[in-house]
Specification:
The complex is a heterodimer.
Chain A: H1 4-14, E1 18-22, E2 28-30, E3 47-51, E4 57-65, E5 78-85, E6 90-96, H2 109-112, E7 116-123, E8 135-142, E9 160-173, E10 176-180, E11 183-187, H3 194-209, E12 216-222, H4 234-240, E13 245-247, E14 252-254, E15 256-260, H5 271-279, E16 287-295, E17 314-324, E18 328-337, E19 343-344, E20 353-354, H6 360-378, E21 388-391, H7 397-405, H8 410-413, H9 419-422, H10 429-440, E22 446-453, E23 457-465, H11 469-475, H12 480-484, E24 490-491, H13 494-502
Parallel strand pairs in A: 6-8, 10-24, 12-15, 12-16, 21-22
Antiparallel strand pairs in A: 1-2, 1-3, 4-5, 4-7, 5-6, 7-8, 9-17, 9-18, 10-11, 13-14, 16-17, 18-23, 19-20, 22-23
Chain B: E1 7-13, H1 24-38, E2 48-52, H2 56-59, H3 65-73, E3 79-82, H4 85-97, E4 103-111, H5 119-127, H6 129-133, H7 140-152, H8 157-178, H9 192-198, E5 216-224, H10 229-232, E6 237-246, H11 261-273, E7 281-285, H12 291-300, H13 309-312, E8 317-318, E9 323-326, E10 329-333, H14 338-342, H15 346-361, E11 377-384, E12 389-396
Parallel strand pairs in B: 2-3, 2-4, 7-10, 7-11
Antiparallel strand pairs in B: 1-5, 1-6, 4-5, 6-12, 8-9, 9-10, 11-12
Helix pairs in contact in B: 8-9, 8-12
The chains are: A alpha+beta, B alpha/beta.
Chain lengths: 507, 398
């Protein structure tokens, strides 16, 4: 059993590593304090809420936990230690995450101590499958490894656009991979899930856009692998990323947050809604965020539906929409829908089922082809007018076939084809393709995105990159290319992959 | 403190260890009866009872401990529950000192093995919840403090090896001392190689033999006001001074990570409250939850300067006499085997520590009686959590 009030309070502090700073003497504290021990009663009302969510810390000392307490057993063995911030003024206990340590492996603590670490938002520990999913940011990874430190800056908006567009984006895939044949797939670490990936993507979106998080008026999270059947991911994202004005006293965020579901198009479907919202006269100064996130589910191989197990990935992608400092403007959009049950998951079932051979022609191909044709018709576009074409990617074959059939050449669709690197990240899939293209596109390039969601429907969008895309690219350090290929990726075997994918889902 | 503090007139304890077949009632009864019989006191003579346990309502679902005790003792006198034995004793001393009660039963017990599957989680949540949430274990804070100590005091590789060897020797010595303690959980000789073998430098800085075990057991003592102490025994052991101090629950938030501020303050307070000096202590019981905490406690209590104990403890040990020579004085430390070998049933541990000092000062420790011409005073140091609370009692005989 989880205690709701305790979970609420622990995660309220722990998810963002909240602390306090005395404005009289500068002393800093972990956790919220109403007064400063050094300044006493005078300091009431003079304590400033701070957090360490975007800060870089140092691993002061560490040891290895070989025999964790019960709820942490699934995570072990792991490195555990003391992490300090601001030259040792505040110290946190912390677990190093994203590290599989073999039972006979030696760990030289001297090599680890003194290195810089980045706080990571993760599941805290295992819990009964009916309990509240406990989260915390007392998990860390080394800043000189897969996930570099990113400074979070807030810039003043400089240019207003006539039409809404993308003002920033962030893609997140984990450090772990399984490689089988020509396809590599991203796998969550034990303490990751669709919630943690959504927060990571949103965090990178904010870092990339440099917008003021208080101006975000609504966040949408599309997913089909939310660990909860009832309880949004978006509320967690809003709290951890501090979206909208925060009412400190009550611990409320003045932001709207909602989860959406439509198989793999749960996020792309909301792009137009999010864009329309910031175009509304009363809210032109605000921003909206759409995140697609999935720890894509599949039954183990050999079980019904297990065919998907060769393709599923893990990742998320966030887009921020607004009227200021737009990096890619909307040119047009269109959506289509039909009731085609080519892929589904019934309530209380852990894994989805699919329509086998009928997931292709009458489902994916029919919808994607039609939605692209209709948008091109509407905007009077020919394939050669489009610089990049990104389609939903359940595997490598489908998007390649559909792109060729629509008249696109390899140089138009290859840059956005990431399924070979990350697997099918479901709601995050075509959005990550779009992020990859934005990482490399030039001003005035036209990008056509076509998502597909089983059930079934498709959304097509046309974006035109602006001159400000270049500034965004200069700020982006955690690019899709970096995530697709770098020396810190950890490749695991099938057995480990299944264990990682199940993660902390139950005790 | 008045001239003479309250006095311990009788003590009792059970064997520590795994009492699979025994219920809490019988353990408490055994320890209590020994103490009462030793001074020929009847239950009805007691004015109050101060009892210590951390987890009994959780481990054994006994309900409110006071009611449990009332039913067990067939008494309706005032009863108060605290966590550590020292905490119960400290409260009992306050009450006796204030003249509220004159004869008090102080007891403590724990039955940790009845919850062997969950007790580490319970312990860690009690010791440091935020560290627990981050993945900390009851062992990890000891290891982090050890590493902080090595780094803060800039120990080189060979110095670190010497420190680790010294810690191993402390564990071996604890086990050796316990050989003569019929109540000890482990009456088994261990070797330095066994301690070293249970560690793995590049994985586990401290091993199985560096940590106190999980134990069951009970202990009790009878505390009397100083005036009537002699009516119960010819040899009362007076509490000359006692003090306690408190520190942050979150270990990483503490300023000093190389020792316990609470221990330093408690010792300072106890010395100030009495006319006893460090050099007047002959028998010392330290709360060595781990070999390293044992070592650091010798610094915290003032027997060594900060960062000094690791290099001196070993050379100050006189193996022929089983004691340490510190500042020219002989000091007997944990002659009962300490927490490592005697056992650590949380609520009862402090009782066993007082038990040992009581027996030694009265020269009733039998086979393990300290062979020294003059035994001055005794000192008991107990911790709650990972140095969250520290208690020091100075005891002596006229």
């Amino acid at each position: 059993m989880s205690s709701e009030p305790i979970e609420h309070r622990v995660s309220h502090i722990g998810d963002r590593l909240r602390g306090s700073r005395c404005e009289l003497c500068g002393k800093e504290y972990f956790k919220l304090k109403d007064y400063c021990g050094a300044c006493g009663r005078e300091s009431f009302g003079k304590m400033k809420n701070i957090d360490f969510f975007y800060e870089e810390g140092t691993l002061e000392t560490c040891t290895l936990v070989d025999k964790p307490t019960n709820k942490f057993t699934r995570l072990g063995p792991y490195i555990y230690g003391l992490v300090s911030f601001h030259d040792g003024s505040v110290r946190f206990p912390g677990r190093l995450t994203d590290k599989i340590i073999a039972n006979d492996e030696d760990v030289d603590f001297e090599d680890l101590e003194g290195r810089n670490v980045v706080p990571r938002f993760r599941r805290r520990h295992a819990v009964d499958s009916s309990g509240i999913v406990p989260t915390i940011t007392l998990a860390f990874t080394f800043a000189d490894e897969y996930y570099p430190y990113h400074e979070r800056k807030i810039a003043k908006p400089s240019k207003e656009y006539e039409r809404p567009g993308i003002v920033g984006y962030g893609a997140y895939t984990s450090r772990f991979r399984i490689k089988e044949g020509a396809i590599e797939r991203s796998i969550p670490f034990f303490d990751e899930d669709a919630i943690t990936a959504a927060v990571e993507a949103g965090k990178f979106g904010l870092i990339n856009s440099e917008i003021d998080h208080r101006l975000v008026s609504k966040v949408y999270v599309g997913s089909e692998s939310n660990p909860y059947a009832v309880k949004p991911i978006a509320s967690k994202v809003a709290q951890v990323l501090n979206l909208g004005e925060e009412e400190h006293k009550e611990g409320l965020q003045c932001v709207d947050a909602v989860d959406t579901e439509f198989a793999c198009k749960a996020a792309t479907s909301m792009f137009k809604d999010a864009a329309s919202l910031v175009f509304y006269p009363e809210s032109k100064k605000s921003y909206t965020m759409v995140i697609g996130t999935d720890n894509s589910q599949a039954a183990p191989r050999g079980e019904p539906g297990g065919e998907l197990d060769f393709f599923v990935g893990y990742g998320a992608c966030a887009f921020i929409f607004g009227m200021y400092d737009v990096i890619a403007q909307f040119e047009g959009w269109i959506s289509i829908t039909s009731d085609t049950p080519d892929f589904w998951r019934r309530d209380l079932q852990p894994y989805p089922s699919h329509g086998g051979r009928f997931t292709g022609k009458p489902a994916y191909f029919k919808h994607v082809t039609k939605v692209v044709q209709k948008l091109m018709e509407k905007l009077s576009l020919k394939p050669q007018d489009i610089t990049y074409f990104v389609a939903h990617q359940p595997n490598a074959a489908f998007p390649t076939r559909v792109a060729k059939a629509l008249g696109f050449r390899e140089e138009q669709f290859e840059p956005g084809l990431l399924v070979k690197k990350f697997g099918n990240t479901y709601s995050g899939c075509s959005p990550i393709g779009l992020a990859a293209v934005l990482d490399v596109a030039e001003p005035d390039d036209r990008i056509l995105l076509a998502s597909y969601g089983s059930g079934a429907g498709a959304d097509a969008y046309s974006f035109i990159a602006t001159k400000q895309l270049k500034e965004s690219q200069n700020r982006q350090r955690f690019t899709v290319a970096h995530q697709a290929e770098n020396e810190f990726l950890q490749y695991v075997d099938y057995g480990t992959y299944r264990r990682l994918k199940e993660g902390l889902s139950s005790i | 403190m008045t001239e003479k503090g309250p006095a311990v007139v009788g003590v009792g304890r059970t064997k520590f260890g795994e009492h699979y077949e025994r219920d809490p009632e019988h353990l408490v009864e055994e320890a209590g009866l020994v103490a009462l019989r030793s001074v020929d006191v009847e239950r009805e003579d007691l004015d109050a009872c101060f009892f210590a346990d951390y987890f009994l309502p959780i481990t054994n679902k006994i309900g409110l401990e006071e009611g449990f005790l009332s039913e067990l003792l067939e008494l309706n006198i005032p009863m108060e529950i605290t966590r550590s034995f020292s905490s119960a004793l400290s409260n009992a001393c306050n009450a006796v000192q204030a003249g509220k009660y004159s004869l008090v039963l102080v007891g403590g017990m724990e039955k940790m093995t009845d919850r062997w599957d969950k007790i580490r989680d319970d312990l860690m949540l009690l010791e440091d919840p935020w560290s627990y949430y981050a993945g900390g274990t009851p062992e990890s804070n000891h290891e982090l403090m050890l590493r902080s100590y090595m780094k803060t005091h800039r120990l080189h590789d060979n110095e670190r090896n010497l420190l680790m060897l010294t810690l191993a020797e402390l564990s071996v010595r604890n086990h050796e001392n316990a050989l003569k303690n019929e109540f000890a959980q482990f009456q088994r000789k261990i070797s330095v190689d066994m301690v070293l073998g249970s560690r793995r430098k590049l994985r586990r800085p401290l091993g199985l033999y560096d940590f106190a075990p999980v134990s069951d057991g009970a202990s009790a003592l009878i505390l009397s006001d100083s005036d009537s102490a002699n009516s119960y025994t010819q040899k009362p052991v007076s509490i000359l001074g006692y003090s306690l101090a408190t520190d942050y629950i979150t270990f990483p938030s503490r300023r000093d990570l190389t020792g316990f501020l609470s221990s330093r303050l408690a010792m300072k307070g106890a010395l100030e409250a009495s006319s006893v000096g460090l050099n007047d202590i002959s028998v010392l019981q330290i709360y060595d939850q781990s070999t390293f905490v044992g070592l650091v406690t010798l610094e915290d209590l003032g027997f060594y300067g900060k960062g000094e104990a690791w290099k001196s403890v070993q050379e100050n040990y006189i193996s022929s006499e089983g004691c340490y020579e510190i500042n020219g004085e002989k000091l007997f430390i944990n002659v009962n085997g300490g927490l490592k070998a005697d056992g650590n049933p949380l609520g009862a541990t402090g009782g066993a520590q007082v038990f040992e000092v009581f027996k030694q000062l009265r020269r009733e420790a039998g086979e393990r009686q300290i062979k020294a011409d003059a035994l001055k005073n005794g000192c008991v140091h107990e911790l709650e959590g990972f140095g969250t609370k520290a208690y020091v009692f100075l005891l002596g005989m006229d």
